[in-house]
Structures are given as C-alpha cells and as structure tokens.
Design a protein that fits this description.
Bound molecules: 3-iodo-tyrosine
CATH class of the domain at 55-213: Alpha Beta
Helix content: 25-40%
Number of helices: 8
Distance between the termini: 46 Å
Structural class: alpha+beta
Shape: globular
Order of helices and strands: HHEHHHEEEHEHEH
Strand content: 5-15%
CATH topology of the domain at 55-213: NADH Oxidase
Largest sheet: 4 strands, antiparallel
Radius of gyration: 21 Å
CATH architecture of the domain at 55-213: 3-Layer(aba) Sandwich
CATH superfamily of the domain at 55-213: NADH Oxidase
Mean pLDDT: 96
C-alpha cells in the first residue's frame, strides 16, 4: 500500500490548495514601455559603493526595502531568509573588526593570484570603512530550515537561490529609493552568527551596507556586458 493511500482520493482536490483570484493589473502598452525605459535608465546608474557618508537615512525607507525583499519568490514559498539590521555603532565596529581580520588574511595569504588579479580593477582591499560609516548594515541570513515552537523542523527548498533573488529585490529597491549599497561577503562569515547571536540554522549569506555615498565617493570605471552578449533568443 503506498503512503499516499491515506491522503485524499486521486480525483479530489487537495484541501490544502486554497486559491484566490489573481490581482493582476493589465497596463496599456505605452505605459508598459514607459515603465521599462524608466527602470532600465535607473538601474544602469546603480553602482556598488565602497565609501559611505555617515548621514542618517530615514528608517522607514529601509523597512520598506526589506518588505520588498520579502516579496521575493522562494522555493515552496518557505521564505528562507532573515534580515538583521545593524544600527548600533558598537555592533558595527565589532563586525568591521572581525571582517577586516578575515579580509587581511584573504588579501595577504588566502587569495590565489588569479582572484587578486580579478579584483585589481575594483580597487578593493581589507579596509572596510563601509561597515562603520553606513548608517545601516543589513546582514541577510539564509535560513537552512524552519524550527516550529515544539522543536520540529520544517524543510526549506532552494534556500540559496531564494536568498539570491531576495537580495536582488533588496538592492534594486534601495537603489530605486535613492540609496547606495555594497553587496559584501566577507569570507568566512561565521563570525556574524556569533556577533549577531543567530541560531545555527541561520547561515550568513550577505552583508549589505546601506546609506548615501560619501561626497567624494569614486567607483571603478567599469562597463556592463551589452545585452546581446548575455542573452540568447531562440
Ligand atoms: N571578500 C573580499 C574580496 C572580494 C571578493 C569578491 I568575489 C569581490 O567581488 C570583491 C571583494 C572583500 O570584500 O574585499
């Protein structure tokens, strides 16, 4: 007897599927084009910023951006992410000290030459001023599995991919609001769990300082691949 025999009969709908009508707003085509051009023009201006101003940023902007990140699709809709927003200068200082220690080791000994060569055009080094200057340092954790109040575990699916999509939503939302970010992945990142006192099932995924760029911020003179080089139509 297969396990499923205790479930609903083959032809009965599964009662756990409870659909509602889709709230889809069909737009006139000229409005679709206008929005497309507006967004691509804005997204072309996005740059990863390594030098931040300490100027405060309204908290509600960050709250809204995180709500937008939380609208990302995820495997089996498990929403396998946690965002820790660090504003306490003492906590930011601890994160910076720990990250710089790892990065020093990376740049001085761990990084293979090909990696250092790949980073050379970006002008990166082990000094991570963004971790103390930016008014918010969002640390995104990937939640490997859920834990119910009774201690039982709920499986998550495609947690890494889901977190990547949510991070993309977050970065795009903050940029659209007029804020700068830097996706930063100190390696290894385990110290973040300790400093931020997160449980074992939450794995550090991304560090994202958020704020205004420093008045004299510079970025490397990089271009992007032309769309024809990244897309195949067939
Ligand atoms: N984690 C280091 C090195 C680094 C790695 C990659 I891949 C980058 O795109 C940029 C930096 C650092 O943060 O400096």
């Amino acid at each position: 007897m297969p396990d499923r025999a205790v479930g609903p009969a083959e032809d009965a709908p599964d009662p756990r599927y409870r659909p509602v009508p889709l709230d889809f707003r069909r737009l006139p085509e000229d409005e679709m084009r206008r929005r497309a051009v507006e967004l691509v023009t804005e997204m072309r201006r996005r740059r990863s910023v390594r030098r931040f101003s300490t100027e405060p940023v309204p908290r509600e902007l960050v709250e809204t951006a995180l709500e937008i990140a939380g609208t990302a699709p995820s495997g089996a809709h498990k929403q396998p992410w946690r965002f820790v927003v660090v504003t306490d200068p003492a906590v930011k200082a601890r994160i910076r000290a720990a990250a710089e220690e790892e990065e020093r080791d990376f740049y001085r000994s761990r990084a293979p030459q090909h990696w250092l060569d790949a980073l050379a055009p970006l002008g990166t080094d082990e000094v991570k001023t963004h971790l103390t200057d930016a008014p918010y340092v969002i640390v995104q954790f990937k939640v490997r599995h859920g834990v119910h109040p009774d201690g039982t575990i709920e499986k998550h699916y495609y947690a890494t991919e889901s977190c990547g999509i949510a991070a993309g939503f977050l970065i795009a939302a903050l940029h659209r609001m007029g804020l700068a970010t830097l996706p930063h992945t100190p390696s290894p990142m385990a110290f973040l769990s300790e400093v931020l006192e997160r449980p074992a099932e939450e794995q550090p995924f991304l560090v994202l300082p958020v704020g205004y760029p420093a008045a004299d911020a510079e970025v490397p003179d990089l271009g992007r691949k032309p769309v024809d080089d990244i897309v195949v139509w067939r």
